[in-house]
Design a protein that fits this description.
By secondary structure, the chain is an alpha/beta fold. It contains twelve helices and nine strands. Strands 1-2-3-7-6 form a five-stranded parallel beta sheet, sandwiched between helices. It has a two-stranded antiparallel ribbon with strand order 4-5. A two-stranded parallel ribbon has the order 8-9. The chain starts with a strand and ends with a strand.
């Protein structure tokens, strides 16, 4: 799960890295072992940032269908209503980028559950679920105001908000009973799913099982550097981009989870894994076509690195 937070837009970019890592690992180890979704909670500011736009368009182009963004559409920023600075049609924007879209009441649990069921049932494209909400929901004087965004509510407003929720006004910390029961069900469901998953992991071939263990431990295969090239000194010298490309391809022979790309500069930087396909056109491909999206490239590579499974992106 990714929560898009400060610096704004980076969480959204990282989430595309999560979704990309999931798709590559699913291709390599099979859907029985890797089949998760990536969920994002994003606000107006996340969608205003340029890195977000870059990430959105690449995710749509690559068809990362197990990526679901819940847009907290409250129309408020720190300085006031978002209408001060933007008038974009976010639904139209995501549709144009190749996403599936839905618009719902973000305060309606049944509507949220239905939307999530719809999104997880169709993984042909990534999903935007625009959730219309009220910032400071339940606060008697600060709901729908920008002060609810950038300022503390204050003790009196907090007490009155708790009363509006039907909670004890003097409760310092509270987990409502229905929430506790629901989370208890989630824990039990998770234990059951893990128990069902373990035999699927055990069914991997010995080679893939070893690779999985190495990935989870962050280890490199034995002899990963055995084919590193040696460059004899000469008067002209060798361009570092050329030597780097040769080293990368040598390591790639023994480290199958090395992957990456360049912002439309593969030819110039010699950063192509020869013999490997381009990701999306080939789901097992290790060459990621970032296009001219330098900011998103950095965020996406970061997302791949922290996803889990210890992929080695550049």
């Amino acid at each position: 799960m990714c929560c898009s937070d400060l610096p704004l837009g980076q969480g959204l970019g990282n989430s595309v890295g999560f979704a990309l890592a999931e798709r590559l690992l699913r291709q390599r180890f099979g859907a029985d072992v890797v089949d998760h979704f990536t969920y994002v909670i994003a606000g107006d500011g996340c969608l205003m940032e340029g890195v977000g736009q870059e990430a959105i368009t690449l995710a749509g182009h690559l068809g990362l269908g197990r990526l679901i963004v819940l847009f907290d559409d409250n129309g408020i920023s720190i300085d006031g209503p978002t209408s001060l600075s933007t008038s974009e049609d976010q639904i139209g924007r995501f549709k144009a980028a190749g996403w599936n879209t839905l618009a719902i009441d973000g305060h309606d649990p049944a509507a949220i559950a239905k939307a999530m069921t719809t999104a997880t049932a169709d993984a042909s494209k990534p999903w935007l679920i625009a959730c219309k909400t009220k910032i400071g929901y339940g606060a008697p004087t600060k709901q729908d105001t920008h002060s609810a965004h950038g300022e503390p509510l204050g003790d009196d407003e907090i007490a009155k908000t708790k009363t509006a929720y039907g909670w004890p006004a003097d409760a310092k910390f509270l987990i409502p009973e229905d929430v506790a029961k629901l989370m208890g069900k989630a824990v039990r469901r998770g234990r059951k799913l893990e128990k069902e998953w373990q035999p699927k992991l055990a069914a991997l071939s010995p080679a893939l099982a070893t690779e999985w263990s190495q990935l989870q431990a962050g280890e490199l295969p034995a002899g990963w550097d055995k084919e590193l090239p040696v460059f004899p000194a000469d008067a002209k010298g060798l361009a570092t981009r050329d030597s780097n490309g040769k080293v990368m391809n040598a390591v790639a022979k023994t480290v199958p989870w090395l992957l990456g790309g360049a912002a439309d500069l593969v030819e110039s930087t010699r950063t192509e894994f020869t013999g490997s396909g381009v990701f999306a056109a080939d789901w097992a491909g290790r060459n990621i076509p970032f296009g001219i999206r330098e900011h998103a490239m950095g965020a996406i590579v970061n997302g791949i690195a922290v996803h889990g499974g210890c992929l080695r992106p550049y």
